[in-house]
Amino acid sequence: MILKYCPQCASPLEERRLPDEQLLQPVCSRCGHVLWQNPKPTASGLITRRQKRQGPVEVLLVRRAGPPREGCWDCPGGFIDPDEHPEDALRREIREELGVQATIGPMVGIYMDRYGAEGESTLNIYYRVPTIVGTPTAASDVGTASWFPLDRLPEPLAFGNNRRALHALANLLAGEGTGTRHRSQARKDGRRRRG
Ligand SMILES: [Zn+2]
Questions:
Q1: Rounded to the nearest whole angstrom, what is the distance from the C-alpha of residue 26 to the centroid of ligand 1?
Q2: Ligand 1 center to residue 15 CA distance, Å?
């Protein structure tokens, strides 16, 4: 339980199982106000580039300059503001964190996770970002931004949702034949199967 007191009347909250509900919910012991628990949505970007036509696909990661997971590598992105579409949130976060204009590509996936000391539930939406305009420069809350080959990611990554999204991206690129090592191997396999 993240809050201890009722936001309506400041009385202590207690966990109760409400009728027809499976999970315990924080309920005010005095006024009965229910703090429905829902995951917080975030939007993150898988920003990629290739230096050479046959070169490895690289992904841009940022090093967290504050808690939670300070010093760990993360995908650029952040929490979505009220009424903000996830794509707009991601464009805003990339502009704030890296000072570049992003073109948001297709969604890669949605990954559930936990965040911070309180273990708050998060719903993390990942998009491909095939194009950015400008040279990425890390803002103060980010610390450092660096490109890494997708098959040689730095450690530690900040969150399990980073790892799952980056893995999904590698699989997508391999399937498209635009991956790194996967590409020639996939073609060979394809030829063998067809032959
Ligand atoms: Zn109350």
A1: 11
A2: 13
Cα distance between residue 22 and residue 1, in whole Å: 16
> What does the block give as tokens for 95?
């502009």
- In whole angstroms, give the CA distance from residue 75 to residue 62: 6
pTM: 0.85
Give the number of other CB atoms < 10 A from CB of residue 59: 22
What's the 43 CA to ligand 1 centre distance in angstroms?
A: 33
Taking Cα atoms as reference points, which of 193, 124, 190, 191 lies closest to residue 157?
Answer: 124
Per residue in 138-195, pLDDT (tens digit) is: 987 778 999 999 999 999 999 999 999 999 999 999 988 654 343 444 444 444 444 3
The structure tokens 């890296």 sit at 98
Cα 192 to Cα 72, 187, 188, distances in angstroms: 42, 9, 6
What are the structure tokens assigned to 40, written together? 């917080």
Tokens in use for 102?
């992003």
Instruction: Report yes or no: 136 and 148 within 8 Å, Cβ to Cβ.
Output: no
* 19 alpha carbon – ligand 1 mean position (Å): 19
